[in-house]
Amino acid sequence: MEFRSIITNQLLLRKVEQTDAPFVLEGLSNDVLTKYMLIQYYSLEEVQKQMDYYANHYTNKTGFYWLIETLDTGKNVGVIGVNNISSTHQKAEIGFWILPKYWQQGYTAEAAKAVLQFAFNELQLNRIEATVETENIASIATINKLGFKHEGTFEAIRNKQWKLYRLNDVCNIEKKLPQKFIAVLQIQLGCFVFLLQSPFYE
């Protein structure tokens, strides 16, 4: 289970490094971005907690996080990753954030599909979890584009409701492919959980 960079049509997904702390701070100090998140940081000293979080996952092989760059301009647009990897249960959680100025440009879905391919094909996971706050309409829309349906709603966390979604049918793929590969996507921004059949990402 080794980390690697990923290249898509528009994006380079590379390892989050300590030198990326100013960019991570730019994102996680943005009140629009963090409205539906459980973390906010407003100084380099504070955001070091998040940098340590990313680094500890790499070290312990419990997760991988990629910084998302555009191929054409080299601009940093966000971070995406899988965490809480369980080889025993072949599952993990996925989380991501994108700077608001880069919303609605297709970067989230493009990066997520690439990370899902990595998780299913290289990490050999069968299930990926995702949580999205019920009021986070933008993230819900992204989840729907990735092909997920509601699985359940959690009890209130910090006075907010979180939903769980599941997908049993992606483009009628269940009629053609085995049912054993089921995945649930977890998004750090909110709380929906969805199920995906991993062959969809092959």
How is this structure best described in words?
The protein is of the alpha+beta class and 202 residues long. It has four helices and eleven strands. It starts with 5 loop residues before the first strand and ends in a 6-residue tail after the last strand. It has a six-stranded mixed β-sheet with strand order 1-2-3-4-5-6, with helices on both faces. A three-stranded antiparallel β-sheet has the order 7-9-8, with no helix packed on it. Strands 10-11 form a two-stranded antiparallel sheet. Helix 1 packs across helix 2 and helix 3 (107-122) packs across helix 4.
Task: Indicate the proportion of strand residues.
Answer: 25-35%
Helicity, in percent?
Answer: 25-40%
Uncertain regions spanning at least 5 consecutive residues = 164-194, 196-202
Distance between the termini: 18 Å
Note the overall shape.
Answer: globular
Radius of gyration, in Å, reads 16 Å
Q: Overall mean pLDDT score? A: 79
Write the H/E string, N to C.
EEHHEEEHEEHEEEE
In DSSP terms (H or I, runs of 4 or more residues), the helix count works out at: 4
How many β-strand runs?
11
Largest sheet entry: 6 strands, mixed
The strand line-up of the biggest sheet is 1-2-3-4-5-6
